[in-house]
């Protein structure tokens, strides 16, 4: 695989070619995912749940994310490395810039931040300083206590319109990529069609420009209740490498996600 950059993702979008993304937390699995052709690796704050055993992503610290970023950076190969800003990194613009700086020094090539239209100023400041930003909308796990659980977002027309407007606002502020989590497939498609920037979906249907899943879910080792949008690709493969390859190929061929994985 040729080195994946932001321009690669933009070119995929223009060409109507989809791309695959997967979370990674260490060098060995990052290497396997990259070898399988997965274009984007995310050091997700989901590590608080799948690695640390918490029931939310809130306890994850900047040091935790930096540590896993350094590990993944050594194995990432040609894949693009995106990293989550942890809970409260967006408390102030100053903190946002400092925390993003720490992630970039650890090896991140793009940072991801949860937040609606009010994040526009922070995203503009990051982008002015040369930090590519992915804006995470829809189900934002860092606000789980306000949302009342990990629930589908944008189900009614007003809510859906709001998410589309937020995505537009953040793209205009300088977000290079939008990520939509747990929204109806119709909204995933509408946002992707309305914006020029690549849109990555998880539980957002087959109409987004890229797809992402948590690595543990792809390998069928999800602890607790399984979200509807996950699929165990190891069940149809001989080994971990094969599962990653299968996931990548199914995304590229638009065989995944199927109707049953969406809302
Ligand atoms: N293993 C794992 N996979 C993930 O995708 C993931 C994490 N952990 N941790 C961080 C967040 C939390 N996420 C979640 C967790 C649960 C649901 C879930 O159970 N959703 C219901 C929606 C029910 C509804 O509102 O209709 C579902 O049935 O999928 C969704 C996203 C996504 N992220
Ligand atoms: C589920 C993805 C999008 C994420 O934010 C994470 O892994 O933390
Ligand atoms: Mg996250």
Word description of this protein:
The protein is of the alpha/beta class and about 260 residues long. The protein has a single domain (about 5-260), classed as Phosphoenolpyruvate-binding domains (TIM Barrel, Alpha-Beta Barrel). The protein contains 11 helices and 8 strands. It has an 8-stranded parallel β-barrel, surrounded by 8 helices. It starts with 5 loop residues before the first helix and ends in an 11-residue tail after the last helix. The relative contact order is 0.14. The site of 5,10-methenyl-6,7,8-trihydrofolic acid has 18 residues, from α3 and α10.
**Could you say how many structural domains there are in total?**
1
- How are strands sequenced across the largest beta sheet? 1-2-3-4-5-6-7-8
Low-confidence sequence ranges:
none
Succession of helices and strands: HEHEHHEHEHEHHEHEEHH
Overall pLDDT confidence: 98
Total helix count? 11
Write the CATH architecture name: Alpha-Beta Barrel
- Per CATH, the superfamily is Phosphoenolpyruvate-binding domains
Number of strands: 8
Classification by helices and strands: alpha/beta
